[in-house]
Amino acid sequence: MVKRFFTVIIVLILGVSCSSSSDDSPEGGGKDNFDRGVVLINLADNIIIPSLQDLNSKLEDLNSKKDIFIATPNQENLDNLRTSWLAAYKVWQYVEMHNIGKAEEILYYFQMNIYPTNTADIEENISSGNYDLTHVNNNDAVGFPALDYMLYGLGVNDDAEILVKYTTNADAANYKTYLSDVVVQMKNLTETVLNDWTSSYRTTFIGSTSNTASSAYNKLVNDFIFYYEKGLRANKIGTPAGNFSTNPLPDRVEALYNKEASKVLALEALKATQDFFNGKKYNGNTEDKGYNSHLQSLNKENLGNLVNSQFNTARQKINDLEDSFYNQINTDNTKVTQAYDALQLNVVSLKVDMLQAFNISVDYVDADGD
Question: What is the pLDDT of residue 34?
Fold first, then answer.
């Protein structure tokens, strides 16, 4: 009887599977008449493109400040360069999650924010003067984390030691060149992604509304959740706090060498994800169509409210941390793990409950074991 029961279940499952069409068919059943196009238009025109434009502007300023510093490597110009670096890094938190279109094609994220940066590779590149920053082996030797090291990590005791690297050190010219090359690469990559959005990809993007694994809507939903789960929850909080290892790993924090920006960047990333969920315009207070609107159309207001409530709880926990996550982990790691736990609550709400409501399947592999 037991074997017959399972046989019937298997036959039913196979029957349902066979009744489905190819990858271009809806990912799930149920009636969903929500206009996904209005969400894609809002996300493209009011969040994705404006954030890329702002990042591009911030990187232009970073490039300008870099040129001034290279011409005259002194404390004032170093401070100005650092300020410009952090301003661009904060905007990056709004851009990183949009790993779609040209960004996915050129592996934009991997060349902008892989941390911890590989200081040995950076020093080897500087010493040899022979490198290809676009090569996959240099993904952890470029981008914002590489600049974090170049602007804060070259001196053990004070900024004077850092300035020596760019002035009287035997490889001073190479340090300047490498600093310049990293900034220019970041600017060029961002321009490539932005130009693609404004020239052609926007049209493709806003028209890809079907409920299929390859549609822009479904891919972007998955990118959003992946970023929240991995880029924010795991990379910024969980991995350094030791949630996936035997012991805490404080040297894995974002902005390791700056020692003051980890919290700022995490809060910006959290705001970016919550704003995106609610369709809130970049650098504005107006909310338009977003994932929360889609949930409301499905009579899932309670889920949307829960997601926002959990975003707010996570913000409170992150606000309880020191500006330096490195110091926080070394002095009182419990608070960091509590922040991770608060972030984790929304993984279930977004990755399980929201995806089920949208009839969208997860398109990435969860390797955290959580």
Answer: 96
Sign of CA dihedral 235, 237, 241, 245: negative
What residues contact residue 317 under an 8 Å CB cut-off, 6+ apart? 335, 338, 339, 341, 342, 343
Contact 277, 309 (CB under 8 A): no
pLDDT at residue 22, as a whole number:
31
Q: Cβ atoms within 10 A of the Cβ of 33, count?
A: 6
Distance CA 185, CA 191 (A): 10
Q: What is the mean pLDDT of residues 187-192?
A: 98
Give Cα separations from 340 to 16, 248, 316 (angstroms): 39, 13, 12
The DSSP line for 297-356 is HTT-HHHHHHHHHHHHHHHHHHHTS-S-HHHHHHHHHHHHHHHHHHHHHHHHIIIIIIHH
CA 95 to chain centre: 7
Query: What gap in Å lies between CA 266 and CA 250, rounded to an integer?
Result: 15
Measured between alpha carbons, how far is residue 336 from residues 123, 131, 233, 315, 327 in Å? 32, 38, 11, 12, 11
Distance (Å, whole) CA 84 – CA 77: 11
The mean per-residue pLDDT over the stretch 354-370 comes to: 82
Q: Using an 8 Å Cβ cutoff, are 273 and 224 in contact?
A: yes
Query: How far apart are the C-alpha atoms of 35 and 43, rounded to whole Å?
Result: 13
Query: Could you give the CA distance from residue 288 to residue 98 in angstroms, rounded to a whole number?
Result: 18
Output the pLDDT for position 366. Answer: 66
CB contact set of 11 (below 8 Å; sequence gap of 6+): none
Q: What totals of helices (H) and strands (E) does the chain contain, helices first? A: 17, 0
